[in-house]
Amino acid sequence: MPELRGTTKGPVLTRWFGTDNLHTLDVYEKLGGYGAMRKALTTMNPDQIVQEVKDSGLRGRGGADFSTGVKWSLMPKESALPMHLVVNADESEPGSAKDRYLMENSPHMLLEGIGIAAFAIRSHQAWIYIRGEYDGPYERLVTAIGEMKKKGYIGPKPFGADWPLDVRIFRGHGAYICGEEGALLESLEGKRAQPRAWKPPYPAQKGVWNRPTTVNNVETISTVPWIIENGGAAYAKLGTEKSHGTRMFTVSGHVQRPGNYEMEIGKTYRDLIEGLAGGALPGHTIKAWWPGGSSSPVMPGDLLDTTTDLDGVKNVANLKSHPQPPLNMGGRAFATMGGSGGVIVMDESFCMVKAAHRLLQFYAHESCGKCTPCRVGGNWAVRAYERILSGEGGTEDLGILDRIQDGLQAGRCLCGLGDAAGWVIASTLTHYRSEYEEHALHNVCSAEMAAVNATSPLAGRTNA
Ligand SMILES: Cc1cc2nc3c(=O)[nH]c(=O)nc-3n(C[C@H](O)[C@H](O)[C@H](O)COP(=O)(O)O)c2cc1C
């Protein structure tokens, strides 16, 4: 059984976590698992399922927050071509490990969700595109699929319904870009993983092998059995008026209890970071936190009371005492985003310029190279950071970084990877500009000096 440290039992996804051998079909079914798939296939039609998911208000948990029910309703009701459900289990976002956690602990919850979702979109073929390094979840899923086939839950007549289902797993090779849905579909087709220049028709019309396709995240699909079992209205009662349900958060970095947590949407990041994850390490204070993996703009430590719903994280008014960051999405200013739920926490001992440098190295390395701003901008930014951090930079480098972030954002790249790289620069420059200036002008790092002082045997002693 994988370690459950740092985990709460939430009401939806993790309600059975901690039960011995939950990953086996026997135990999952004894707890009530597969009841929702049986109900969907034997008592409901696809349109009723889609409506139930629409009523639930469930939004995609892969980062884009798109309504799941609406996405499913875009699939054609009739198609001469086979239709596909593709589950995005690539999870390469720095700071995010919740999909791995769900698949490892409860692979049948995902597979039951796949059974229901495939039926709802009238597809007989489902794929799980899984990150190459995820050996544990992969093995659990292979075994679980074997158990389902033995029982007939995957096969010609699942639960006696005249609706054959096949589920296959495709292993990626660990590239971040493979999580972007267009690149993922290219990779599934055996091609180089590069984003598609999406214009209508979207994947629901022309997805993998040009066939109607729905792509959904692991957590999104794992939520579906609960919704079908309890009803969309029951799910919609959880959370806030506009953001329904619960979601998984992975908390990592400078906290006492890093781990995966399920929490109702609408509670605050303080509830999560200081409550569930135990708060800062003894003697330290939280300086920065990323709400949705490193691809979401960073937030300062004094804004932990931001709520986890859409209105909370995106609301620029929440930045009150802070200058509004020059971030925009489709022309609209926003503070940050819930993204994949990967919450990274850093305390005062960590230098934000070094953090941004490290992240830009990641984005430059992971750029697929298809579009120019991302291919070129990331590397330029890394060079500017190298100059600043080696003491050879100057204020002109801050101007260069500012221009690079502007060139990466606001739809100038083919996919969100470029925006993410731009937001790292923009948000750290906005909230931690003084640290940039210290490095660029004086070759000084106050964060590192604070860390050294804190660990010195003279710590706490005055000169008096
Ligand atoms: C660079 C990049 C990486 C992404 N990686 C993932 C990922 O690992 N898993 C995921 O579910 N979505 C990822 N996404 C979002 C997907 O493109 C897509 O929106 C999502 O899989 C849709 O599922 P959902 O509607 O259930 O959220 C990524 C997007 C970008 C731009």
Task: Write out the strand line-up for the largest beta sheet, numbering strands in chain order.
Answer: 6-5-11-7-8
| Radius of gyration from CA coordinates | 23 Å
| Total number of strands | 11
Strand content: 5-15%
Rounded mean pLDDT is: 91
CATH homologous superfamily of the largest domain? NADH-ubiquinone oxidoreductase 51kDa subunit
Poorly predicted regions = none
Please summarize the sheet with the most strands. 5 strands, mixed
Helix content: 40-55%
- Please state the structural category: alpha/beta
Describe this structure in words.
Helix content is 42%, strand content 12%. The protein is built from 18 helices and eleven strands. Strand 9 (328-329) and strand 10 (332-333) form a beta hairpin. It is α/β, with parallel strands linked by helices and 464 residues long. It folds into two domains: 25-236, NADH-ubiquinone oxidoreductase 51kDa subunit (Rossmann fold, 3-Layer(aba) Sandwich), CATH 3.40.50.11540; 247-447, Ubiquitin-like (UB roll) (Roll), CATH 3.10.20. The site of flavin mononucleotide has 23 residues, from strand 4 and helix 16. Flavin mononucleotide is lined by residues 60-64, 66, 88, 90-93, 176-177, 179-181, 215-217, 220, 415-417.
Task: Give a topology summary.
Blueprint: H1 25-30, H2 35-43, H3 46-56, H4 68-73, E1 84-89, H5 98-105, H6 107-120, E2 125-130, H7 135-151, E3 166-171, H8 181-188, E4 213-217, H9 218-230, H10 232-236, E5 246-253, E6 259-264, H11 269-276, E7 286-290, E8 299-300, H12 310-314, E9 328-329, E10 332-333, E11 342-347, H13 352-366, H14 372-389, H15 395-408, H16 416-431, H17 433-442, H18 446-455
Parallel strand pairs: 1-2, 1-4, 2-3, 5-11
Antiparallel strand pairs: 5-6, 7-8, 7-11, 9-10
Helix pairs in contact: 2-6, 2-9, 3-6, 5-6, 5-7, 6-9, 13-14, 13-16, 14-15, 14-16, 15-16
The protein binds flavin mononucleotide.
